[in-house]
Amino acid sequence: MPEYPLSMDASRSDIATPRGTFSALTWVKTLQRPWCSRCIGSPTRPRHSICSILWFQTRWSVRRHDFQDVEQLWRPWSPRFIEVLKGLWTAEPGTFNHHSEWYDVTDGWVSPLPVRKPHPPIANAGVSEDAKEVVARLCDWAFISLPSIEAARDQTTDIRSRAAKHGRSIRCATYPFAVWRETEREAEQERRRLLDEMDREAAENWARGLFGNSGSFDRFTLEMFALGGGGLPLFGTAEQVAEKIAELYRSGIDGVLLTFLEFHADVIRFGKEILPLLRQMGVRQ
């Protein structure tokens, strides 16, 4: 069976609390077998309200791999991977069968099975046509890249309408890069500083490798890759950043994976300065 040297974001663990959900990511590279993935989401017993979400993301670069068209990957391989994974999780042990170009499973089984039934939520990253079809048919969360806040409503509406055709519902998440200062002027100065220090050659190489035919970054500027690694830039005061997150929420975004300039310090600042504002707006309980 053919194989490509792929790397994948394989697991995202969420800790549910009375106030919400705390999420952490686990990065697993060159993971190509559903039998390996299922172990990440299969705890032997529930503890402390901990659950997991399998985050399925196929990364590729035309500079590193020998295929130029993402359709070579998405159409034949990715759906089969998820189908096998869900089948191993939900079928009676020893009864799962799957036969395709990519996988050949007869009387398959895994142990232990996931605690969460029918299986842990599966998230897929990407907004190409193929990615949206995969998530609409097989996944529970759509992890989407956004070139602007204004683009959120069209993307979430499109993904949910596709899922509805399969009798399914989908939740959507994105990854903003949040930078806030005491004044709007200070926030703009910080944005300017980051762009002035951009390694243009490195950013261009990264963007060139991702653009190709991926469909997920076609409307991204080089500045967006320098500001937060392609995350949606949210600059301003605490009030302005909170309002921008609220606008994403009103546009159909159910969750955000926030990225920060100074991770530890900004996580604490976010909890003190922005989270209370989101609660006042009804975005966060």
Topology:
Elements: E1 7-17, E2 20-28, H1 34-40, E3 50-59, H2 71-74, H3 78-90, E4 96-99, E5 104-108, E6 122-125, H4 129-138, E7 141-143, H5 152-165, E8 171-174, E9 176-180, H6 184-196, H7 200-211, H8 222-226, E10 232-236, H9 238-250, E11 255-256, H10 263-273, H11 275-280
Could you give a short description of this structure?
Strands 2-1-3-6-7-8-11 form a seven-stranded mixed beta sheet. Strands 4-5 form a two-stranded antiparallel ribbon. It has a two-stranded parallel sheet with strand order 9-10. The chain has eleven helices and eleven strands. The protein has helices at 34-40, 71-74, 78-90, 129-138, 152-165, 184-196, 200-211, 222-226, 238-250, 263-273, 275-280, and strands at 7-17, 20-28, 50-59, 96-99, 104-108, 122-125, 141-143, 171-174, 176-180, 232-236, 255-256.
Can you offer a commentary on this structure?
The chain is of the alpha/beta class and 285 residues long. The chain has helices at residues 34-40, 71-74, 78-90, 129-138, 152-165, 184-196, 200-211, 222-226, 238-250, 263-273, 275-280, and strands at residues 7-17, 20-28, 50-59, 96-99, 104-108, 122-125, 141-143, 171-174, 176-180, 232-236, 255-256. The protein is built from eleven helices and eleven strands. The chain has a seven-stranded mixed sheet with strand order 2-1-3-6-7-8-11. It has a two-stranded antiparallel sheet with strand order 4-5.
